[in-house]
Design brief:
single chain; four-stranded antiparallel sheet; 15 helices; 6% strand
């Protein structure tokens, strides 16, 4: 029975992952193309760019493969091919390293070693337990990331704005206790998901958090960042499938899971590496740094001379500011591609450098980079 249950869980999770990934990719379709104004930023500068119309081929193949994964009974070959296309897409543009896509790719990496014939009970149990640890890690690290002054002063009031706007001025003060407790609740949820006696309560807490986020980001709230709406729904389904009716596991399950190199590789990336982000030694979007208010920022300042030379479609994002103009990189990326810009300095520098093509004097273009706060660091006044 346990064998059939684990196999069924993996099959359902495979389909959910494929469908959610496909929907999110369609919602930000320009992100996967090169026919756009926001610069393409490859991981390695020597990687060739895919020019139009060839830039449609790779994401088109990825979309078809996701559809096949969601439909066929044994999608292993399609999963492997999708991983190849996904890695290529990520190498060709760092802004595709969105947290949800990174999670789905690692989940597919685990599934790529499963033959879907349900003939290896130990492997099935190891895969399911790996997924459990991954989901729990998201809540654990995401909660800890919110323990920073920016979350309480900026992000939390913004999240509550659709509610407080109806309650009058300064009504956010009545919810301040939630600002302090939200990170702790999220972190505790990640821990309690792995404690059998507290799993169901943690499942309810996780679902309530995702429903809250969905309402706040939906047209009922900010109508913002629709690309993560499918991810929130998928997370609710993952939590229900993995934790609600399955609370029995032992240390033997942990030992069995660590027997597989694929699980060890993913768990190091998902469980261990996020710790280094607190010291700015690992990327934020690879560390479950979600709506924390504490990621790096970048604004490009240009002179009026440079602004006049910019194409109209870029000039739109250049906002006048005290004798010069500024381009908010996150806003530019979000408006055009439907996702926030990857919040790392190397990405912001590359975007800035792309504007050098419009001037011979590069000193007229400079980047104001704001690094994320390190653990224990206070906001600079």
């Amino acid at each position: 029975m346990a064998k059939e249950n684990s196999c069924s869980q993996i099959r359902i999770i495979t389909r959910i992952t494929a469908i959610a990934c496909l929907i999110s990719m369609l919602l930000c379709y320009k992100l996967w193309l090169n026919d756009r104004t926001f610069p393409v930023v490859p991981l390695l500068h020597f990687l060739p760019a895919l020019h139009h119309p060839f830039d449609y081929i790779l994401p088109g193949i990825a979309a078809v493969l996701l559809l096949c994964i969601a439909i066929v009974r044994n999608p292993q070959r399609f999963i492997i091919l999708f991983l190849v296309s996904a890695v290529l897409l990520m190498l060709l543009d760092q802004n595709r390293w969105q947290p949800w896509f990174y999670q789905y790719v690692l989940m597919f990496f685990i599934m790529a070693f499963f033959n879907y014939r349900c003939d290896d009970t130990k492997q099935q149990a190891a895969i399911v337990f790996t997924f459990k640890l991954m989901i729990a890690a998201i809540y654990f690290w995401s909660g800890l990331q919110k323990l920073n002054p920016n979350f309480l002063s900026d992000t939390f009031p913004w999240l509550m704005q659709p509610i407080t706007d109806h309650l009058g001025p300064n009504s956010i003060l009545h919810f301040r206790f939630l600002g302090y407790s939200f990170p702790l609740i999220e972190t505790a949820t990640g821990i309690c998901l792995l404690i059998p006696a507290l799993q169901k309560q943690a499942v309810i807490a996780a679902i309530l958090m995702h429903v809250f986020v969905l309402v706040i980001l939906s047209p009922l709230g900010h109508n913002y960042n629709p690309v993560v709406w499918p991810w929130n729904v998928a997370m609710i389904l993952f939590v229900l499938l993995l934790f609600y009716n399955d609370s029995t596991y032992t240390f033997a399950d942990i030992r069995s899971t660590l027997h597989y190199n694929s699980s060890k590789f993913v768990l190091v990336l998902f469980l261990c590496m996020p710790l280094f982000n607190f010291f700015n030694a690992w990327d934020s979007y690879l560390s479950h740094n979600l709506y924390s208010g504490n990621t790096s920022g970048g604004v490009i300042f240009i002179t009026d001379v440079v602004k006049e030379k910019l194409p109209a479609y870029i000039k739109t994002y250049a906002i006048p500011e005290e004798g010069q103009s500024e381009i908010n990189i996150k806003y530019w990326c979000m408006k055009e591609l439907g996702v926030p810009a990857y919040p790392e300095k190397r990405n912001f520098e590359a975007v800035k450098n792309s504007l050098f093509a419009y001037t011979n004097d590069t000193s007229q273009i400079y980047l104001l980079y704001t690094p994320k706060l390190k653990a224990g660091e206070k906001v600079k006044q």
